Amino acid sequence: MYHVKHTSQRPLEVVENWEAQVRKGWLELAILASLWQRKCYGLEILRKLEEGVSLVVAEGTVYPILARLKADGLLSSEWVESEGGGHPRKYYSLTPLGRQRARSMARYASEFFQNVGSLIEPLIQEGKR
After folding, report:
1. Which 3 state secondary structure label does DSSP give 78?
2. Is the domain covering 3-128 a CATH 1.10.10.10 domain?
């Protein structure tokens, strides 16, 4: 998460937390990718993000994104009764438009990292010394 600090000199100053900013920027793609193979309920998506890519995200962050992706036509959802007699769960799945968006975003991410790779390689190599 990032923190916002109000000061008299600057109306809005973001306290440095670049890792959170990077994670937040790629969160939509990570959510879409987590639904690529099968439908999942919200908490399951959170677990996939945390366990699969070490992307720890609060429920209060993911659920609004899921709602927006659904409103944008990228996801569909359905309530499914729990087999163990527990409460029903809302499962999300990619729509055809969501699959198209996920592919486009994945291609963009891949191209972006390939292009920036030559710039950051010297930094990585220097850090290994």
Report:
1. strand
2. yes
